[in-house]
Each structure stands twice: as structure tokens, then as C-alpha cells.
Amino acid sequence: MTGPERNSRATDGPSGASPDQARPGASGEAHAADQPGEAQPADQPGGQPRRSGLRDPQRAVRGLGAGTLGLEALVLLLAIQPIRVVGGDLSGAAIGAVVALAVAAILVAGMMRRPWAWHAGTVLQGLLLLAGLLHWSLFALGVIFALVWAYAVHVRRVILG
Predict the structure, then answer these.
(1) Is 124's pLDDT higher than 70?
(2) Which of 105, 103, 154, 100 lies closest to 125, judged by CA?
(3) What does pTM read for this prediction?
(4) CA torsion sign, 41 to 44 to 46 to 48?
């Protein structure tokens, strides 16, 4: 072999058990739950039901929320010039609202550890929809990001329960 060889009879750890023997079910025996048509156990060894396969579901959900808000801020800032060129009249108030919403999205994305941050993100989506009164394209962006945010909240509820 070209890589490091591993002696299958070598022992790992003080117990003297080989790596294959240390793993449950590695000796070639099939568990009843592994058979087709059999249900998997609902509880983990700790006695708690497993909601997802994630190591840290809280962290994963925070990352989803922060990523969604970060992407929203980036799209809002990048949309200013095309809206001005293609969409016609974009007033100074509309540009100010877009910049303020983008800054707020970045701030809320950085605060996703706080329990109120998900509510603040929802309010932010409503404010973007209201900014649609200043220009129709902001309403279109508000609808798109409200749907994305609703999906992120749904994923959060599914993962965290």
C-alpha cells in the first residue's frame, strides 16, 4: 500500500479492544433496527429524542438567519444603482431607506445569538415591504426576502422544535 498501513489486530486505547470491536454493530451482526421494515429507535442513548443530525443545531440555525440577513443587506446595497438607472426615479429618501435597512440587517445578523433577533429580522422584512411605498422594486425585493425569511423561520422551528 502507498498510504500508512493499519494493523487490524492492533489495539486502540487501554481497553484492548480493536477499533472494529469498539463500534457497536461492527462485528457483522445486524441490529433489528437496521433490518428493512423495522423502525429506528426514537431516543438516543442519552434518553432524549434527536431532532436533527447536527452537532450544534442552535449554531446552525443562527448561521442560517445571519446568512439570510447578510445576503439581504448585500442585495439591497447592490440594487441601488440598477434601480436608479433602470427603474427611473429613486428619491433620496428611498436610497436612505435602503441603506438604513441594509445596515439594520447587518446589525441584526451580528446579534443572532440574542433571542429577540429573530423577531427583529421579521420586523425588518415588514419594513422592507413598507419601503415598497417609495419604489415598486423595493416592494418586489421585500416580497422575495420575506419569503426567504419565512423559510428560514420554518427551518428553525423544524430543527429546534
Answers:
(1) yes
(2) 105
(3) 0.67
(4) negative
